[in-house]
Structure prediction request, 268 residues.
Amino acid sequence: MRRAPAVAGQFYPLDAEALREEVQGLLQPGRERLKAIGAMAPHAGYMYSGRTAGLLYSSIEIPPTVLLLGPNHTGLGPRASIMSQGQWEVPTGTAEIDQELAQALLREAPLLEQDTAAHLYEHSLEVQLPFLLELNPRVRIVPVVLMEATLEELQALGEAIARAIRASGREALVIASSDMSHYVPHEVAQRKDHLALQRLLALEPQGLYQVVKAERISMCGYLPATAMLWAARALGAREARLLAYSTSAEASGDYSQVVGYAAVVLLR
Prediction:
């Protein structure tokens, strides 16, 4: 199956050349590229979160396979969905699904169901692809979106991801797609988001999950981020770095209702 772009012309340019120019303008050549195990990237329109995403992608190597974990914004499909075969298209290229790794993960993780409906219109993973393809045109992906999961299920999923990657012998990167607080005053977003980021930077998946719940932080991808943390820890992550934090106010000038964005990288 070929999954067509769903948000081209909305979150990023529809025209291939315009998109390539925008992505190249958001990347920062010359930065040291880190060999990351995991990462967290934002997924808003490029005019809002593109610079934060660009800094992340300028700072990491893109291996042959990237496992993408995102939130399910559409409500379509089961509560935890993996698309295990096919291709994802964006105007600047096509990313093949790493079918072997996807099938291995499907076997390892009972939470996941093979599904395409949850992926067809979901933007959280799609907006990562122009960056990934710009840096590695041959990159393969494993797309997973999460709607509901308990902490125990997220731990099991993260550990299943680690087992599947290790067993495959592949060099792979796990990226969680998440924005931070949504539509709150700038000061509130900064305060609440940094509570969540403290737990993420401490490599504490349980702490991240619990603080989001306790503080009612409207971080849309806390489930993917929690699973990514479990996976990265199982794969040997010992350090997390916050590369950038921003809010939509920097683009819109509206500080009364903002969305927060963070770029985080996890390293051995």
Observations:
- The chain has a mean pLDDT of 97.
- Residues 2-267 form a domain with the Protocatechuate 4,5-dioxygenase; Chain B fold (CATH 3.40.830.10).
- The longest helix spans residues 151-168.
- The chain has one domain: 2-267.
